[in-house]
Design brief:
Length: 353
């Protein structure tokens, strides 16, 4: 019969050069699951900085376990979580493998934290979040940050013209966010090579998002960031949960396109934030009208006005609409956030006063 002891024994043959010992003694193995049909899954916790270089180690660990009798399939997953301080046996952490429940609610040197969310993917959250951050920094001379909480598909390195940036650290090992368009920007995309993206499971998403908030030098000692814009992944999953439970978020903006289906998803996002007690600051309609680049004629390709009506129905502010425009798209592709309408910024600023 396959058991955890034999698997750990096999894993003792895998040495981590940076730890100078094997991965079991170094406390890097956790969350082991053994299925009756011979499938084995476990995590190897690695330093977030070293993540991509650990791929050979991950493969060694898989082959070491694959050699055991009765093993049909092995999946070893790298997680960019630091080893938990307590060394509980692997099986004791299965329900909360990263000890997320024990992580305190964060206290951050940030005055207002605004999440940009949506129920449906691809409605323009990231594009809008970048534009809001840029405009806030430029107009009001506020100290502004932008956190890309989309760890599956980070967009901000590209949108903020920061592709290829490699993280730098303070003496206290905090990440120094690069500044682009006056905005301190942080994204998992700076840490992890997209081609070698880690596989993220629910608890890992939660810790990764938590660390993105916590481990960044958002402000110098004794200072505060005025506003942090958080670009959320689509939907109502683990990242949203972390935000609601662990981050002192001021409120959320919901971005929606005017189609019924997007609006139905926007309503889901609204409900989720409501049940987790995150205030809804308002709704923005994106890809609203289409202005013809040749003649200036306006067309309502996806319909129009649906988000305003929805906001009224839900009793939340309507913050404004953004046209579907080739220019916005081209700017995004070129690493420059578009110029968002002043009225949206004013409506947003009013909603957080
Ligand atoms: N108003 C707009 N006009 C034209 N193109 C737009 C507009 N808003 C967003 N786009 C384009 O739509 C695509 C999706 O935008 P974006 O990545 O911001 O969406 P998202 O909601 O963040 O997606 P995801 O859910 O995958 O994170 C991008 O190619 C972007 O350039
Ligand atoms: Mg996005």
């Amino acid at each position: 019969m396959l058991n955890q002891k034999d698997i750990l024994k096999a894993l003792e043959s895998v040495k981590d050069p940076s730890a100078g010992q094997d991965i079991v003694s170094a406390g890097m193995v956790s969350g082991m699951q053994i299925n009756a049909d011979g499938q084995v899954l476990f995590m190897i916790e690695v330093d977030p900085k070293a993540g991509p270089e650990m791929e050979p180690l991950r493969q060694q660990a898989e082959s070491a376990v694959a050699k055991l009798k009765d093993v049909q399939k092995v999946t070893a997953v790298l997680t960019a979580e630091k080893a938990a301080p307590e060394k509980a046996p692997a099986n004791d952490r299965s329900s909360d493998p990263h000890g997320m429940g024990k992580n305190p609610r964060l206290e951050l040197p940030i005055k207002k934290i605004i999440a940009v969310a949506s129920g449906k993917g691809g409605v323009g959250k990231s594009t809008v979040a970048a534009a809001i951050a840029k405009k806030l920094a430029k107009n009001s001379q506020l100290k502004v940050g932008l956190l890309d909480a989309d760890i599956y598909g980070p967009s901000q390195p590209k949108l903020m013209g920061l592709e290829g940036h490699k993280p730098e650290f303070t003496d206290e090992k905090k990440i120094i966010p690069p500044v682009s368009y006056g905005v301190k920007t942080m994204s998992i995309g700076f840490m992890v090579d997209e081609a070698k993206a880690l596989i993220w499971r629910g608890p890992m998403v939660q810790t990764a998002v938590y660390q993105l908030f916590r481990d960044v030098q958002w402000a110098d000692e004794g200072e505060e960031l005025d506003v942090l814009i958080v670009d959320m992944p689509p939907g109502t999953g683990d990242a949203q949960l972390t935000l609601a439970q662990k981050v002192p978020v001021t409120g959320a903006i919901i971005v929606s396109t005017p189609q019924d289906i997007a609006l139905a998803d926007a309503r889901k996002a609204y409900e989720m934030f409501k049940t987790t007690n995150v205030p809804i600051l308002g709704i923005i309609e994106n890809m609203s009208t289409h202005v013809c680049t040749n003649c200036g004629h306006e067309e309502h390709i996806f319909g129009h006005g649906g988000a305003r009506a929805e906001a009224e129905k839900l009793g939340v502010p309507f913050l404004g609409e953004i046209p579907l425009s080739a220019d916005i798209r081209a700017k995004a592709d070129g690493g420059e956030p578009f110029e968002i309408d002043e009225t949206i910024i004013t409506a947003l600023t009013n909603s957080i006063k």
